[in-house]
Design a protein that fits this description.
By secondary structure, this protein is α/β, with parallel strands linked by helices. It is built from seven helices and twelve strands. Helices cover about 30% and strands about 20% of the residues. The strands form two sheets. The protein has a seven-stranded mixed sheet. It binds zinc ion.
Length: about 280
């Protein structure tokens, strides 16, 4: 079911991790950001769109993680985009014959058969430095940064007052750092939060990749909450953060937090830096 969150901007939420697909109305059709997870959900979205006389004219994946790279044949064959970095990573992953099998292993068994991987990751990279998604509709500014995943992008739809945050600024997920290919994941994350703070001035609606939609009052509150978590992680402190506490939406989040602490400690040992 599509729910309008701003003029011409609608959300379709998946059962899996409260994933949000975003539909933006343009002149000749819609832009679809991070389409969803389960096949029947994306088929339902495709039906809702065609029932309202809309076709998908462009797609966008906010980052190279499987749950943001899916597609369904019913959504048509519009060009699908990501940042150059995102598309580069996906190209390498797709050339690895074991990638889809590994993904199938990460998907909860109760929905694994519901996740169609055949059209996974068929995206085109926009040249580095591309400021806006090329399409005929409200301008969608690409705010690329290095946090959570390489080539991660938040999208700002200024005319609609909407910030699509990808996997940042969630009320249910703690900041999940990219601990693999980067020299300073903590500083990268803090820099990305500063970048979002810089573009979020006039935002009325915040759409995280997972979790609930935030109003104007939530934008800075969530930036502050994410920054406080990252500081606690950096200082190996105990975050007072409801997303990992006893009332957390996802009970596995405490384990993810413990793992991030451990990986960061291992990195600083290897780097020989004290503390
Ligand atoms: Zn995600």
């Amino acid at each position: 079911m599509l729910r309008q969150v701003a003029e011409g901007v609608l959300i379709h939420q998946s059962e899996f991790c409260q994933s949000n697909a975003v539909v933006v109305h343009g002149r000749a059709g819609v832009l679809l950001i991070d389409p969803g997870v389960q096949g029947h959900e994306m088929a339902c979205l495709a039906n809702d769109l065609s029932d309202s006389g809309q076709t998908v004219v462009a797609g966008f994946s906010t980052h190279p993680h499987w749950d943001h790279l899916l597609w369904h044949a019913g959504l048509g064959a519009a060009p699908r985009y990501g940042t150059a970095r995102c598309a580069g990573i996906v190209r390498v992953l797709l050339s690895d014959a074991g990638w889809k099998a590994r993904i199938a292993g990460w998907i909860p068994p109760d929905i694994a058969e519901q996740v169609p991987l055949d059209l996974l990751g068929l995206i085109t990279g926009l040249p580095a430095g591309t400021a806006r998604i090329p399409w005929d509709g409200p301008q969608v500014r690409i705010a690329g940064h290095q946090a959570h995943a390489p080539g991660h992008a938040a999208l700002l739809i200024e005319e609609r007052g909407v910030l699509v945050a990808g996997d940042m600024l969630s009320d249910v997920l703690i900041p999940l750092l990219d601990l693999n290919g980067t020299a300073d994941p903590i500083e990268d994350y803090l820099a990305a939060l500063r970048l979002l703070e810089g573009v979020a001035g006039d935002v009325d609606v915040l759409v995280p990749g997972h979790g609930s939609i935030g109003g104007a009052d939530q934008v800075h509150a969530r930036i502050d909450q994410d920054r406080a978590y990252v500081h606690a992680l950096r200082d190996a402190g105990v975050p007072s953060d409801p997303r990992v506490g006893p009332s957390a939406t996802f009970d596995w989040m405490a384990g993810v937090h413990a793992q991030q602490l451990q990986r960061l400690a291992q990195r600083s040992e290897r780097g020989g830096t004290p503390g």
